[in-house]
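User: For a benchmark we're assembling, each entry needs the component sequences followed by a predicted structure for the full assembly. Here are entry 17's components. Please fill in the structure.
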Amino acid sequence: MEILKSIIEVAWFILLVAAGVAVLVGYLYSHFKFYSRSWFFPAVLAVFPLLALAVFGGLLGGCSFKLWVYFLLAEAAIAAFFCTVVKGRHTVPYLMLAPAFVGLALLLVYPFIFEVYLSFHDLKLTTIMMWKNTGTLPFVGLDQYIKVFTTSPLSEVSFWALFLRTLVWTFSNVFFHVAGGFILALMLNNNIRFKGVYRTLLVIPWAMPQVVAVLAMRGEFHAQYGFVNIFLVKLVEYLPFLASLGVGPVQWVSDYPLLTCTLINIWLGIPFMMVVILGGLQSISSSYYDAADIDGASYFQKLRYITLPLVRPVMMPAVTLGTVWTFNNINVIYLVTGQSGGTEQADILVSALYKAAFTYNRYSYSAAFALVVFAMLFFFSVFYLKSFDAARDER
Amino acid sequence: MKKKISAAAKKRYIRHLLIHAAIIAVAVACVYPLLRILSVSLRPGDKLFSMDLSIIPAGATFSSYARLLKDTMFLHWLWNSLLITLATSFIGVSLASTAAYAFSRFRFPGKKAGMILLLSSQMIPAGMLILPLFLMIMKLKLMNTYLGMIIAYSVSSLPFSIWILKGYYDTIPRSLEEAALVDGTSQVGAFWRIILPLSTPALSIAFLFNFTTAWNEYLVARVVLFSAKQYTWTLGLFELQGQFITQWGMFAAGSMLVTIPVLCVFLYSSKWLISGLTLGSVKG
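Assistant: Structure for entry 17:
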């Protein structure tokens, strides 16, 4: 019975979305189609603001005269736009794009603007009830941004420590992903037996649901019952001299949280790079290697002068993507250290951002923090793409 | 002469042997954690915590599975996840399929700007939009509901889906539609009757991508859902693992039940998913 109820709830919502799309397309279609008729302007001004008032007024409660004036002005602007600029051109592509872009505007662009608004105001646990009831917030100007750089996002770690840690985290992860993926891909690219089987086994960390993989690995880094420490203990039993070098069981999660997260994330990320690089390697024609063999090139010369340059175009987008993913990776760190009483020794910028908002309930602060992180990422990508273009132009 | 060839063959043989050994070592490292989950899930209740390393433990039972299904709401969590995920994937792919067609076949003002918007949306840190979405969902009074989750998820994979589908539509020759247009269908009719049926592989990949993204999502669910009855499976498993000392067996059992179907689907579809990934990025 409950199952039936949940199905009906979701189906009803999908129908609602479909109806919304239909209304949107019909609305735009009428503007595209009839913009040149003499009755167009008065008709749309009479019909649409009233319809909108009925729909939105019912939704938000209260249909006021003021609201109607807003709708009327908006409709007048839209209709004028259609009459003077659009003039019924490109009807089909715009109608096809409209639903997706309205969705993006509502759930991507609007939240972004809302985040900017939040960052200049003060929303925290004590003001949230006020915001819920009245919809207004105290304006604080740049205070939140100043706080980002002067106070700790969590309880003690500072912004710059997080920043450095993020750089270390991103660099070490991407480096090992690419290096590991490259070596594995080179080995798999030989004409060996069981190649398909190996490839299947090697992508398993990527294929597992990330939540399962990270939580299970977290369990395996448990000081007593995780296999990592059990292996270390056995290793020392067989090779006693290692003990004198300081090898032994380690309190992974509490003493070395960042190292633990990094190891888990390296394990998770290598398969993706391997698969992408392997795809690149397989597309290299063997005639290059044959020619190099005739010239007597060594293995490393072939690697340096044939393989690397030819894999580069495939690898660069994957490395860029991997860098952005690693920089933005909240999942691994939050799942390992996010429980109550968890350490903040492993937090990077984005995970601190998430914790500041939802563990410490400092909403506006975390909005300002998010915009700072976004600006950094934005400048990195612009700079990176510029240098990428420049490198391409040189060739 | 003969001896020289055999020496080369021997060298190659040794090289392959070394490669096999290295790959097997790495493969073991990749698979072993999964086998450990299996092993823990099969352990009898009184031996959950042991230093045992064997894959099939002594006295293996399915009691953890039975307890998981009986004592927790695991099936309920799976059902919640399934419903939310199916709805978001359906909405996402429907919106993406038409938008991608517009980008693939038409020239219109704002095309380039639209594509750039799609690409740059990928630069936004994932954690950044959770806060405003959370506040919006709160304001709409949709906290702790399916609808709140569906709204939060529905556009997250949209840019990527549009990107893959556009790449696929680009490979379908225009002459097919032109023939249909000559025969009297409209542009929309040609899209509906010719392009969509031909794009089933790409549509299923986009669907699969939407599905796995929403299925494995944790961070949004963490803040939107707060009663155990509404949990998705990711939240449920986190909860079980959080009580590490008591519930490890049930956590492992649940992990196995979730992982096996996902693994099968992923391994089956990975080839297309990867070609979609590289296609999109190389053309960008």
